[in-house]
Design goal:
Helix content is about 50%, strand content about 15%. By secondary structure, the protein is an alpha/beta fold. The protein has 2 domains: about 130 residues, 3-Layer(aba) Sandwich (Rossmann fold), CATH 3.40.50; about 160 residues, Reverse transcriptase/Diguanylate cyclase domain (Alpha-Beta Plaits, 2-Layer Sandwich). The strands form 2 sheets. Strands 2-1-3-4-5 form a 5-stranded parallel β-sheet, sandwiched between helices. Strands 7-8-6-9-10 form a 5-stranded mixed β-sheet, with helices on both faces. Helix 6 links the parallel strand 4 and strand 5. The structure holds 3'-deoxy-guanosine-5'-triphosphate and magnesium ion (MG) (2 copies). The site of one magnesium ion has 5 residues, from strand 6. One magnesium ion (MG) binds next to strand 6.
């Protein structure tokens, strides 16, 4: 596979750029497919013989995990987040319906498809299972081929739903978070920082003279520039709760929980330098011969109920200061009583 990749990369000199990129994408896809792990299926049934039957039916297309009670199964699901759960209905202590409602209440396991595998087979039982939130219902004795086919269908549906969910929160052009994701993260981080009484930093980042960039190099080059700027800044976003989002147009917002004024200044400066280091030519900028950004940063310890407008306005004021005082710079402040 590496040999192929090298071969296609060597084609650059023949200017087969588009073909090379397509081939490279296909090779990446093949590499991923080859290293992809098997789908992980958790089977929960109190009768070990039933688990053995399921194991034999699944063959070696899946990685099987087993649990002999609802409680053990839930603990296992929370720990290993399987791709799909096969759940027996009649079990002592906690039956399948109780187990399902617990799985649905936990954020980690809420979206895992659950198939009931049960000796009950009346339409009323089936309706009850589906109404309780089961993805499907299979009667014992199971037919191995049907079981595998149904599992594959639900795994595909789950993958598609995950992809859609992810797309809803991603900016189409740059691939970083969008406004919807930003709103959600802001609410969560505001609450977390308020609980911990720790500082929350929000930065507004705006590309300098970007209208001029579009006018000089064209809108497509402008789009490529936006992508490169977003990628460079995203590479500098280290911690898992930090977030870079496209706010709109050529403006981005960065969110840094547990970051005080001094940390914010250092972080903002790092982002500014990362963009400058891209060295994207901008011949008509009065600031520098390359693309640059101005950054306004505001830091506060959240005190009140969620209201992020003062923090956003404060960062916006700082951005305005950065623009007015020459661009390609950082202005930052602290906001009291956030
Ligand atoms: P300043 O330094 O004061 O920020 O000047 P500016 O030219 O960057 O600011 P202005 O708000 O006047 O212009 C923003 C430009 O950003 C105008 C618009 O065409 C461009 N823009 C916004 N969204 C996109 C986009 O998705 N793609 C491209 N190529 N350009 C965009
Ligand atoms: Mg702007
Ligand atoms: Mg701008």
């Amino acid at each position: 596979m590496h040999g192929f990749r090298n071969c296609f990369q060597a084609c650059t000199r023949f200017q087969f750029d588009v073909a090379r990129e397509r081939c490279s994408q296909i090779i990446t896809w093949l590499e991923n497919a080859m290293t992809e792990r098997l789908p992980r299926i958790l089977a929960i049934d109190d009768v070990p013989a039933n688990l053995l039957t399921l194991g034999a039916a699944l063959g070696d297309c899946f990685e099987l995990q087993i649990a002999t009670s609802g409680a053990i199964g839930i603990a296992q699901a929370l720990q290993s987040t399987p791709d799909l759960i096969l759940l027996d209905v009649m079990m002592p202590e906690m039956d399948g319906y109780q187990a399902l409602s617990t799985l649905r209440a936990e954020p980690t396991t809420r979206d895992i498809p659950v198939i009931f595998v049960t000796a009950q087979n009346s339409p009323a039982d089936e309706m009850r299972a589906l109404e309780a939130g089961a993805a499907d219902f299979i009667s014992k004795p199971i037919n191995p081929a049907v079981l595998r086919a149904r599992i594959q269908t639900h795994l595909t549906l789950k993958r598609q739903a995950d992809q859609l969910r992810a797309m809803v929160f991603v900016d189409g052009l740059t691939g970083v978070a969008n406004r919807r994701q930003l709103d959600e993260s802001l609410l969560n981080e505001w609450r977390a920082c308020r609980r911990a009484q720790s500082p929350l930093t929000l930065m507004m980042i705006d590309i300098d003279h970007f209208k001029q960039f579009n006018d000089t190099y064209g809108h497509l080059a402008g789009d490529a520039c936006l992508k490169a700027v977003a990628a460079a800044m995203n590479a500098g976003i280290g911690r898992s709760h930090d977030l870079l989002a496209r706010f709109g147009g050529e403006e981005f917002v960065c969110l840094f929980p547990a970051t005080d004024l001094i940390g914010a200044r250092a972080k903002a400066e790092q982002l500014r330098l990362a963009v400058q280091a891209l060295a994207i030519p901008h011949a008509d900028s009065s600031v520098a011969p390359v693309v640059t950004v101005s950054i306004g940063s505001a830091t506060t310890i959240p005190m009140a109920e969620y209201n992020v407008d003062p923090l956003l306005n404060c960062a916006d004021d700082q951005l305005y200061q950065a623009k007015r005082s020459g661009r390609n710079r950082v202005c930052s402040t602290e906001l009291q009583n956030g």
